[in-house]
Amino acid sequence: MLIASKYEEMYAPEVADFVYITDSTYSNTEIKAMERNILKTLDYSFGNPLCLHFLRRNSRAGDATPQMHTMAKFLMELCLPDYSMLEYLPSLVAAAALYISNKLYSDGEWTPALRHYSQYTEPDVLPCVGKMASLVLSMHTAKQQAVKNKYCSSKFMRIAKEPCLQGKIMKELASVSLSQ
Questions:
Q1: Mean pLDDT, range 130-136, rounded to an integer
Q2: Helices assigned H by DSSP within 65-138
């Protein structure tokens, strides 16, 4: 937990906090020694970039509005519980989500800047786009509703309630996966 909190949290807990949590079962020295052992065993390699890291970069490159960026985040999170989405790299999932968002809220052009910064062409993203769009169309009947409910809140611009999510464009994008 100490390593994970140092990696993920803005303000990581102190080692003394973990001594307290374990009711002094482990000392400061023992916790630090185990941390060194784990890091050496992992060869200090324990992180992969997340979809969100790629989305931030691509959103800036594509001049995405806050609404477009939030929609893309929603689309990416909607993919998390779906095992079949694991075949796609995080960078491709981010590109596909921004592609859909771009189609829903602007001219839909996959610009040279987006091609350059995402490193994906339009044909590259289409298979992932089709699968993602299919997930969106079935989100109301899916077992997992947490992501949809989260993005229904005002904090997330009520993006999950957007009518375009069940509209013509989304249905056309979902059919891309059927034709490939």
A1: 96
A2: 66-79, 90-105, 112-118, 122-137
